Amino acid sequence: MASTSRYLSTAPQILRCATGRRFPFLRAFSSSAHRWSSTSLEPKIIPEKEDKKNYKPDVNISGKTIIRKIFNTDIPNSKDIELKEESNHIEVDPLDMLNESQTKASKIHEIKSKVNKKQGQENGDSRLRNEKSAVEKVLKQIKSETEIEKIIQLCLEGLDAHSKYPKDVHRILTNGLQRISILSINNESSVLDNENFKQLIEYVETNYKKLSLKELLDCSCSLISLFPEDVAVVELVENELMWKIREADLDLVIELHKCHESPKTQLRKTVRVHCEGIIKRRMTETKPVHLMYLMKHYSTRKDTKFFYKLEDRVFDLIDHMSVNNYCNIIVYSAIRGSRNESLLRLVLFYLNKTYKKRHIQQISSLLFSCGKLAIYDIDLFNKLSADIMKSDLNSSKSTLNILKSASILGWRHEETLSCLLNQLVNENQKLDLADVENLLFSASTLNYCPEDKAELLQSHCLKLIETSMKETSPLPWLNIVWSLAILKKATPELIATVLEPEFKKHLEQGGANKWQYHPKLLGINSAAHFDVLDYSGAYLPQDFLSECEQGKNNAVKKTMCDDVFSALETFAPEDQFCKRKTMTVNGNKIDVELCIDNSGLPVEYVNAQETSSEYHRVAVKVLGFHDLTIPEKLLKGPVDMEIRHLGCQGYKVLTITHSEWIHIKTTEKAEYLKHKLNELVL
């Protein structure tokens, strides 16, 4: 072994001459020999390299445990258990306990003193109830403050213990900030003045560039919630986000947009605009979940063009959407007020095709949206009605909303209405004035209310007379009495409350518009004349009737009225035989008024004003689509009451419905009217 070592030590000198230009291939051997000579053959301990992937920090608690403790501060660790065991053997000084609870006691005493000031205004039970709720609020706030302090301490300890492992550090930081921001929402005291929290923010300012995009995004959402103004740390994180988000996945762009949905500072508005620009450029990458969020967000914004682009994108993704998505598209379109007929037809087709049972609140929203967008899909309504009858109608609010939406649509499905009214109207149910107004208004519009339910509502309204007179706005009470008059359940006592002269003054002082109460007062006045025979109270004065004007029809109904009048003029010219837009003595409105003899032929209008058995006064009422219910095409309540009162005044009423008139050829319309007039006298 020794001879070999001596040979290797002299070998570089012997071979030095051989490493010239002639023998370059021996250079490698020479360098190897030099290395061998300098290497000791004695064993050496080589230190192991650190494996970052399998690195485990030398701490008592792992990063996952810290994060779990951040979201549940009640989990004890080994140190807490040791301290708890030690504390069991230590005697507690009552003075220390008093000092610790001094802040809590002072806050509670302050709340009690504030509540006691109102003792003269409230009774003892309500005072104690308010005091109890106030104390509970303070205790809850103190508990949240304690949790925030624990979380901040946990974060700082975790950052210090796991400093060699960045992945754990970043997770502890982001999760800690997220939990602190959640607890600070309902906490009146500010966490920004906490010294430990300032250390946490300093760490963010120093290491924000090391965070991944997702971690940076989580930090941004938490910091925005915590800081109302753009402090240095917020500016650093926001500017870094705007730089990194350009090439990010669209999911992260949408998430950043959600965080800045309602920005309060200029920088945060800039971030939101930056996200919107990215989304608009990458519209083809949007998924159904992205589209639903964007439609919801822009349904209440002014950017109409972008909402139209979202509607166009629906056509591309319609096959990949769920039933919830189809329902949401209709709801968001209703909120926006966008009635894209081609889109709605496509969505309704897929909704009916893939329909699944809906929750009661979804049914309520969907029906209201259909009413607002004038969607009349009988198949969809039948499915929704079946779901309503199978559901538990525990919430009176949702039940009332469904009934109201059904009245807007004119959906008179008797089984569904009976189910809704059974839930709302019973002897044990307590209804306030607003609930009674909505219920009666909906039932009267659909002209449906079973006899037993109507009597219960009638007796309930009689109890509310004194309460209603104290209301600041008398319009709800007017709606209640008018609805009962439509259902022929208005009593003399109820009618007298709204036909008194003082009530009209009260309406005018309350700021109600004429179009809101004039038609209803006229209807109640007619009901007092013809429906309530034992009424002996006041009526509307004659000058009030002269103030009322003929209401304006919508465009479709106006066109139909003109068409009917043109067909009548072919055999009954205006002024001589008929008149348009007249009003009776009691305020009932007529589209066309004429007179016919016993054979059904028109006679001169002037001569027919005299009472005679040879002439009949005819009131032509043109009924549009919204004057009838679906699917049976029955008269709605207000129209039915008006026709009933015209008949009481001696008129023969000729009703012409939209569904009949549109199917008659132009050349046959005059003959159709002659035939209808002839049927009136037979």
Automatic annotation (TrEMBL):
It comes from the Eukaryota. The lineage of its organism: Eukaryota, Metazoa, Spiralia, Lophotrochozoa, Mollusca. Coiled coil: none annotated. Residues 620-676 form the RAP domain. One of its GO terms (biological process) is regulation of mitochondrial mRNA stability. This is RAP domain-containing protein. InterPro entries: FAST_2, FAST_Leu-rich, RAP.
